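Chapter review: from sequence to fold.
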Amino acid sequence: MHAMLEETMNQATPRPRRRHRARLHVLATAVTAALTFACGAALAQPGSYPTRPIRIVVPFPPGGGVDFVARTVAQRLGDSLKQQVLVENRSGAGGRIGAEAVARSAPDGYTLLMASPAEVVVLSALGQKLNYDPRRDLLPVTLAGEAPLVIAVHPSLAAKSIPELIALARSRPGKVGFATPGAGSSMQFAGAMLEIIGKIDLTHIPYKGAAPALSDALGGQVPVLIVGIPPVVQHAKTGKLRVLAVTGERRSSALPDVPAVAELPGFAGYRFTNWMGVFVAAKTPAPIVERLNMEIARIVREPATREVLAAQGVEAAGFSIAEFEAFLDSEARRYATIARERMIAVEE
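The token string follows.
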């Protein structure tokens, strides 16, 4: 009887040891959750970022304007953040491969995109199908810099000015080609507008980046080159290329003797620039985005950096996040309007 009573009591009343284990389990779970939350919050705080090297993806080959600005920023950003900042060139598909890689990267602030207008504004404004959504999958950080384009020719071409190039193209309809870093680039738009206003027919030759386009222009394989100003400055000064005009609203301090296309009769308002903007993957914590904005904007506005950029024709920007967002909206509307009104198509 006594044994049966003891068994019944044991079944009816939980053992103290089991209750203790249950409490410990609940406590451990709570502590783990708290630590996980705390660690996640800490990673999102500017003070703890970065703790390992950062990479800036350039969606074009080395040697172009976007690459030049990325490397200029990377060197100074590494010093500022006390971490190594590497530049990785992931070219192809007019910048789309590199942009998609960043859009699909971990949203932790360790993978940045130094973009041109094409892969984040122009192609989507034209309704091109992309494997990523620039507005949904990328967060704008800051506009690092902006540079006019150049319209240059090989010295063997019998054209020393834009009017002479137009006259030559009229005499050879469709036989004068112009090289650009890719389809859907601001350079293609600049060439298309030159065709429309000049009433000429050129042949667009898109390359996979500024460097290979420049290489063929230097070798005389293509007669006309439209590209960002940084990689052309030195070749213009040595006479390996003849720069006919720049495409900004005014002349560039890097090539002060070269006229702007907008100076020519009938070309008022002609403006195309190659800008370099920094982006990160969507869902990157706001404190990290703000830290990157603060650091990069400060770096490009420093006198030493401005001087380095200006020597290659790049005007430093350093926009706030809000200013950059407004800039992107304006650019998207402008390119979409030009494409619609001028019926500009993008070659694939």
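Two observations follow directly from the output. The two ends are 91 Å apart (CA to CA). Confidence is low (pLDDT under 50) at residues 1-44.
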